[in-house]
Amino acid sequence: MSKRSIKFVEAPAEDLKKLEAASARDAGTARVVLGLFGTILGASPDRIFPDYVWGPADLKCLHVRSRNAAKKILTWSFTKNVALGKVLLSDRKISKAVFTQRARSPYSRKMARYVASLRRQYPPLKSGRLSEDGSCRTQIIRILESEKSKALTPRVLSLVRAFTPSTIEVSSIERYIYPRSTGAITILIAEDGYTIHDIRYGAKMPFVDFSRRLIEGWLIDFFETGSEGTHWALEDEFNSSYDALHIMEEGDSLTIQDELGVQLWSGKIKCDRKSGRIRFPKNPDYDQPCALGRWIHWTQDGFKPDDWARFFILGSGQRLRGILVKRAKSKIAPTHESM
What we know:
By secondary structure, the chain is of the alpha+beta class. 27% of the residues lie in helices and 26% in strands. It has helices at 13-25, 27-41, 64-77, 85-103, 106-121, 154-161, 305-309, and strands at 4-5, 9-10, 82-83, 136-142, 167-172, 184-189, 196-206, 214-222, 231-236, 245-247, 253-257, 263-268, 271-272, 277-280, 283-291, 294-295, 299-300, 321-325. The longest helix is centred in the first third of the chain and has 19 residues, at 85-103.
């Protein structure tokens, strides 16, 4: 089988610079541009504008120069095999510019002073104890998601105390810490010094029984740093975080259903690791299977890579159900603390 290389198309650099400059001067422009970038990158700028939902019609709100640049970026995003690196960098630059604009306002200065006092009142623990015995362990879970990107106020502190935590920690996002003690709650503060980046709770949870072989849930495309590509997996509907993750392996049995329970496919997993292989653009001596623009590890035997991938990679808010029966003595995906 011949191996082909793939050519990635970079975003128009000059248009990105125009949008960065305009966003640094005006928060309204930044909101629209970050919404555009979030749509292209598959993420929303919820940490900055949590209540904003971007739409193509919003481009009309931009100045004509910014509007034309944004239209070119939007048109580029429909090109096959786009390289997202420059958009990611621009997204980060504009986000920092928004935080800088906010920091200059009287309200931001007042709130930053208030949160600074909370950080002195509730400093991070220097040491702690995470529960881990034969029946229970500590799992880090996110709470009060609706408060993210909003100011840390006395009202939010009251909500945190309602969980009756063993202790409260307030820390900047630069330290990126987790609760160091079971029952503790950590409030992470964003770069502007007063809005909430995340709230994490060290909850005591029972160990998950991974001896069962039949798992029901949702098909997902799983990847993270170190996975070296997308893994086909099932998210157990009865668990959460990494405890719900089950990577599919050779010899497992899988039934795929739509949301109404209609069977779309059923069979035993047989990994085809040759179909769809292409050379790495910057390291052509090596290659890896690819599907729908993603690096993958295998395709189900008898499927084209893109066709198999479409069971797992769907539009926003769409998922297919799966029933997975792990092969005997198969190793289930390891558990981790929630990231």
